[in-house]
Amino acid sequence: MKSQSGAAGAAFTGITPHIVFHEVSMKSLIPLLGIPDAVRGEMRSRGLSSALVLGTVPTMREGSFRKALEESGIRAVVPGEQSQERIGRIIEGELELGVVREDSAEAIRAIAEDAAARGGAEAVVLGCTELPLIWGKTGCALPAVDAMRCHIRALCKAIESSMGN
Q: What are the backbone dihedrals phi and psi of residue 98, each rounded to the nearest 5 degrees, phi first?
């Protein structure tokens, strides 16, 4: 079914707004392609069954992203509350302004490795558009799943298939 505008589908392009994705998708006349769906596909293709989800405080705390992964059998964990707050300050006070500091990269590495070890996660989901700016500087050995890259690939595939390619 197409909308009155002719659109056959739509997407939320920000990760934090996915807090309301389920409710909006239930009311939408056209299919919505969500970021967690794209992340699930990428994790499955890489044989990953558990992940630490990093992102804005609402993304980590609210739980819809974790729930979406867990519904497909992917175990998802988040850092503790203090670590969530620290990551939130780095995202909002530095990364959103284009600032990448070494001490912040080290803090994110330590948080990721500690939380992944405690929760048994085998990968890290970069669940914020700004986290890839700093991830390469962390030196973290855990494989990363960049949520935005996953979503972009899924959107491109959906567009190609709708065009008959």
A: 80, 15
Domains of the chain listed by start with CATH number: 35-159 (3.40.50.1860)
* Strands 32-33 and 75-77, bridge-based pairing: unpaired
Q: What is the pLDDT of residues 88-140, one digit of tens each?
A: 999 999 999 999 999 999 999 999 999 999 989 999 999 999 999 999 999 99
Closest CA to 104 of 139, 69, 150: 139
- CA 78, CA 55: separation in Å to the nearest integer? 9
Helix (H) or strand (E) holding 19: none
Phi/psi at 5 (nearest 5 deg)? -80, -10
Task: Quote the pTM value.
Answer: 0.88
Largest alpha-carbon pair distance within the chain?
Answer: 50
Contact 139, 112 (CB under 8 A): no
d(C-alpha 47, C-alpha 57), whole Å? 27
Cα distances from 154 to residues 37, 88, 111, 159, in angstroms, run 9, 27, 29, 9
Here the tokens at position 162 are 């709708």
Indicate the length of the chain as a whole number. 165
